[in-house]
Design brief:
There is one protein chain. With 369 residues, this protein is an alpha/beta fold. It has a single domain, classed as TIM Barrel (Alpha-Beta Barrel), CATH 3.20.20. Helix content is 36%, strand content 16%. It is built from eleven helices and ten strands. The strands form three sheets. Strands 5-6-7-8-9-10 form a six-stranded parallel beta sheet. Strands 1-4 form a two-stranded antiparallel ribbon. A two-stranded antiparallel sheet has the order 2-3. Helix 5 packs parallel to helix 8.
């Protein structure tokens, strides 16, 4: 029997590896070798295939694989006026599995008043909706994606006097986009949030302090921004927040959710949380004790970075560990992140991706029925 309301027991975060012909078509479009209509037709073909794959596996909610997007947040920057063409230097770094450290990707500086040039995601959602009879999910970044990587220093004073003024404008644009998504028939929205997970790391808190900002204040500001951005969502729209440390190696943070858990779980006016738990760097399950009744914690126990397919027994053991801190009926299962956060980050072949999704569905059936 289908579950009535998301988040579902078996989930995924949203993105899938782009097929080679889609990558080639995008390159040809940039090189002006093909028209935009040709690119859109190829995108649609590839989306129909990835929708069929999700239906075949039986995963809880279907997405378009983010095949019309170049990355999890850049599509928003591309469709927004008031951003600089150059990227502001990021404050944070990635640690890879071999210990190598590399700079995180920057975000545009705020050069002028922000305005949504066109729909960020609603038009894509409208194209996906007729392709499947299963529940579907839309993805957006959170308002903090316009601030966190470079901080207050990247805000032009001629545009906004301070962070509060910037976030108020960003939140308004998000509300407009969510209205458009609702009109397109969206009843399930996932917001991808990096900063709250990254600030958990005491080293990152110190980085924030060195650039003249208070990490505790940032946590409050980002929680408030999410709440403000979804204020006008219709009553039938479920909203979940995906917490992400960065989908490369160990990511940008080391440490559990304890520093943000109480505020995040209890103050955010959302229905569920997608939580990274793929490596020990994500910390233990103790912060789940703050999870209030009526909200779902989707445990990101399956890696989108490593090819080994997790065993059913190992996943069930970890779910049992989490259930010591929050009721089992408030838990669900997913990968820790998308399988392809950007078009250039395809790590796993389609067969491995499908096997991992199938394992998630299998374990969800065994645990929750």
């Amino acid at each position: 029997m289908a579950e009535a309301k998301p988040p579902y027991r078996s989930e995924h975060v949203g993105s899938f590896p782009r097929p080679e012909r889609l990558m080639k078509a995008r390159e040809d479009f940039v090189a002006k070798k093909i028209a935009k209509d040709t690119l859109r037709a190829i995108e649609t073909e590839c989306i129909r295939e990835i929708v069929a794959r999700q239906e075949r596996v039986g995963i809880g909610a279907v997405t378009d694989g983010e095949f019309r997007k170049v990355g999890w947040r850049d599509f928003v920057y591309e469709k927004t006026e008031g951003l600089s063409a150059e990227r502001a230097p990021p404050s944070f770094k990635f640690t890879l599995y071999d210990g190598t450290v590399r700079q995180a990707g920057g975000s545009p500086a705020i050069a002028g008043k922000l305005r949504r040039r066109e729909s960020w995601s609603a038009d894509d959602f409208a194209l996906l909706k007729p392709m499947t009879g299963r529940p579907i999910k839309a993805n957006l970044p959170t308002p903090s994606s316009f601030h966190f990587q470079a901080g207050d220093a990247a805000i032009a004073k001629a545009a906004y006097k301070d962070r509060d003024a910037l976030l108020a404008d960003v939140n308004r644009i998000f509300r407009d986009e969510i209205v458009d998504l609702a009109r397109a028939g969206c009843t399930y929205l996932q917001l991808d949030e990096v900063p709250l997970a990254v600030i958990c790391d005491p080293n990152n808190m110190e980085i924030v302090r060195r650039r003249g900002e208070d990490p505790d204040e940032l946590i409050d500001d980002y929680v408030d921004a999410i709440n403000d951005s979804i204020h006008d969502r219709p009553a039938n729209m479920t909203v979940a927040v995906h917490m992400c440390r960065g989908n490369v190696g160990h990511g940008m943070a080391d440490g559990g959710y304890e520093p943000v858990a109480d505020r995040m779980f209890n103050r955010l006016k959302v229905d569920g949380f997608f939580l990274e738990y793929d490596t020990p760097r994500s910390g233990d399950f103790r912060p789940l004790r703050f999870m209030p009744k009526g909200k779902i914690a989707v445990l990101g126990l399956v890696s989108t970075k490593l090819p080994e397919v997790e065993s059913a027994d190992s996943l069930k053991r970890r779910i049992d560990e989490a259930a010591k801190y929050v009721a089992l009926d408030q838990l669900a299962l997913s990968p820790q992140c998308g399988f392809s956060s950007s078009a250039s980050h395809d790590r796993l072949p389609p067969g491995v991706v499908e096997a991992k999704l199938a394992r998630i569905v299998e374990v969800a059936h065994q645990v929750w029925g």
